[in-house]
Amino acid sequence: MRKLLPVFVVFMLLFTACEKAFLEDELSTDDPFTSFDYLWEQIDLKYSYFDVKQIDWNEQKSKYRAQLYSGMSQVELFNIMGNMMKELKDDHANLSSSFNVSYFGVKYEGADNFDLRIIEDNYIGRNYYITGPFIHDFIKQDSIGYVRLSTFSTSITDAELNFVLSRYRNTKGLIIDLRENGGGLISNVFRIMSRFVSSNTTLYKSRIRNGEQHHEFSNLESADVVPYEGIKYLNKPIMVLVDRGSYSASSFFALSTKAIHNMYLVGDTTGGGLGLPNGGQLPNGWEYRFSVTQAYTVQQANQIEAGKIDEVNRENYENGVPPEITATLNRMELTQDEIIERAIQEILAY
């Protein structure tokens, strides 16, 4: 992963989970205009997706600053500033106080496409295996392995992956269910992906906002994965189930599948969250964070390097990584999961 060191490994060290961020020196003031202006300026200087999302940040300043007045309550100020951050439509953009946390809620933009009870009742029963963060079992007459990962927030171990992949080594294919997985440790993405490649592979490329203008970024750096030397699962179809609740590390996982020929996304577009967050402390003591990086497939990165940024912005995956195979859960039908059924169909036809 040597090519990764200039950008991504630095982020890995500083952001061991999607929930962590930098904290700046504590300041002190109760003036609402001071805190508002400080937050707006920090976002203006560092946020990474203005152009992609076509956000007029000056317009947002005018809109929300006009609502401030001297002597306003902390709750009123929080609501105004939190609403301004929601204009970024980014769940990595948060304002935190002692009494509230603001967030956009991207998963609510899509249908609820996951119901564990349907899966237990119709596919894996009640005696499925629990191996670290994974729940898993055989489905379809033991011909397919179903592996559910609900979070990336805890470190996945080699022993856990060895057990899971050994158990399903003779199956026709694998289903990895990331629906409603809100993210966590980016390192887990690389740990899992190392089991699905046979050679060094660039999963995606990333860059960081580094100039005063909204379009100024560092050079793109490769995020590479090295094959695990032990147990792997190769050359068989792997269906990754995603929905709008698949966010942050789950979106990075989804983005990475675009670099692996036998991995396919099934379900709905992910929620995005491909910008690693940076943050600090406002003059009134509240904390904030927002996205400062961008991530792209290798193909998109090549377009950027060729100067075709407008084309890439129109299809940018920060708004969600799209599936190759679209499927939706019918919540009125409790005897099957249509997204799993479509994944099974694709595996058997592979």
Q: How would you sum up this structure, described in words?
A:
It is a single chain. By secondary structure, this protein is of the alpha/beta class. It folds into two domains: 2-105, Transcription Regulator spoIIAA (2-Layer Sandwich); 109-196 and 232-274 and 320-349, Alpha-Beta Complex (2-enoyl-CoA Hydratase, Chain A, domain 1), CATH 3.90.226. The chain is 32% helix and 18% strand. It has helices at 5-14, 32-46, 50-53, 57-65, 74-86, 116-124, 158-167, 186-193, 249-257, 298-305, 309-314, 338-349, and strands spanning 94-96, 129-131, 134-139, 144-149, 173-177, 201-208, 221-225, 238-242, 263-267, 277-281, 287-291, 293-296, 325-326. The strands form three sheets. Strands 2-3-4-5-8-9-13 form a seven-stranded mixed beta sheet, sandwiched between helices. Strand 8, helix 9 and strand 9 (263-267) form a beta-alpha-beta unit. Helix 4 (57-65) packs antiparallel against helix 5 (74-86) and helix 8 (186-193) runs parallel beside helix 9. The longest helix has 15 residues, at 32-46. It is globular and about 70 Å long.
Question: What keywords describe this structure?
Answer:
single chain; 350 residues; alpha/beta; Transcription Regulator spoIIAA; 2-enoyl-CoA Hydratase, Chain A, domain 1; 2 domains; seven-stranded mixed beta sheet; three-stranded antiparallel beta sheet; 12 helices; 32% helix; disordered N terminus
